[in-house]
Amino acid sequence: MARITNHESRITPLKIAPRLRAIMQQEYPRFSDAEYARRHKALAAVMEKAGVDHLLVITDHRSGNAPQWVTGWPGTVQAYVVFKPGKKMWMAVEWVNHFPLARKMCPHMEVVWGEHRGLQKLIEELKRRGARRVGVMGPLVVEKYRQLEAHFQMTGLDADYIRLRQIKSEEDLDWLRIGATMSDAGLAALLAGTKPGLTERELGAIVESAYVRHGGTTMIHYIGVASMAKPHIYVPPQHHSPRKVRKGDMVFCELSAYWWDYAGQVLRTFTVGADATPLYRDLHATAEAAFDAVTRVVRHGATMQEILDATGVIERNGFTICDDLMHGFGGGYFQPIIGCKSRMAGPLPDMTLEENMTVVVQPNVVTRDLTAGVQVGELIRVTRTGFERLHKAKRGLFRVG
Q1: pLDDT band, very low/low/confident/very high, at 10 (cuts 50, 70, 90)
Q2: pLDDT for the residue numbered 384
């Protein structure tokens, strides 16, 4: 069982490759012109296949990340983007105080303030362009969709957008590496700062302190604290409680820090002021064995059955899982979503792994009576012959304090 000493866990500056640091040092980071051209070419192919003459790309009520992928603007509250190959893009944004930054970050396109009637301005712009058949990527409430349907033939293209996000480019992967570094920094801070007397809420603040100063933002930090002698939770909760850390506790976490739209995901378990009990040692050893077994079969062309079969160590050791054991990640929560034989995640997806997919392998091994559990795992990249770790965080069952 690895011990984290005060010296080892002291928070240090981010260790990151020079090319990634150069991305972080831009005022408002953008991908290269070649990368945006690649994405726009892919959108054009989707449009041609679907038989649409214009594409509407949406963030609405803070939901939907397609505008950021297409334009570089993160969408904030509301963004309606009109895309057509070979034509200048148009975007209406809310609110008025967001408009100056959107225009600054997107000088390559026409950006207008939505004036709290963004949908009407969108309809007017589509009519001005002579749109007839419009494809949609992103969320729209039913009322707004019906207003558009009154003027245009609408086609939903969300499945195509998901497919475009599943296979990562080299630039996508670099931004994910930054997100993974931010997430690792949050974990290092958590290991360094956890001590008896702090609440789960304070642990969350410690995590955020590690990456916000570097330009990162929070996607999630699920943190659970339980007595190893008398556990009361088996998966980290999504909201922090005021429960205080005590000597003899176990802490498990699932941390994702964003670099813009690109987050890592790292999951670890550690104890506070005491060695792990036999139960937690067994749970953690099983989770690590499951992670190793699954990643041994990960490669381009791996089948879903191969992955499911690799999880068998969990049942052989008398345990099961709560959380999904594998899921696609990086721009969304994608297939393949896989559980284990004792806790399936629905039918196995009809697909194989492909090179440059990024997935999280995260065995949340729990007791069958759902009284105790651990978290292990991280985001990886699928390669032609195996996988690449995107995180640098050490693996193991740590002890702090």
Answers
A1: low
A2: 98
Nearest C-alpha neighbor of 81 from the set 97, 60, 98, 101: 60
Indicate the pLDDT class of residue 8, thresholds 50, 70 and 90: very low
Distances in whole angstroms, Cα of residue 333 to Cα of each of 64, 138, 327, 336, 359: 12, 14, 7, 9, 9
Three-state secondary structure call for residue 146: helix
- pTM of the full structure: 0.96
What is the rounded average pLDDT of the residues 88-108?
97
Looking at 210-299, which runs of residues are DSSP E strands?
217-227, 249-259, 262-263, 266-272
The alpha carbon of residue 251 and the mean position of all alpha carbons in its chain are separated, in whole angstroms, by: 22
Alpha-carbon distance of 162 to 131, in angstroms, equals: 24
Q: Alpha-carbon distance 136 to 157, whole Å?
A: 6
Six token digits for residue 286: 């099983």
Quick one: tokens of 368? 């069958």
Please give the span between the terminal C-alpha atoms of the chain, in angstroms, as a whole number.
13
Mean pLDDT of the chain: 96
Tell me the domains of the chain and their CATH numbers: 2-20+168-400 (3.90.230.10), 31-166 (3.40.350.10)
Q: Which helix (DSSP H) or strand (DSSP E) does residue 57 occupy?
A: strand 54-59
Torsion of Cα atoms, 346 then 347 then 350 then 355, to 10°: 40
**Spatial separation of the C-alpha atoms in residues 131 and 87, rounded to whole Å:** 13
Specify whether the CB–CB gap between 387 and 374 falls below 8 A: no
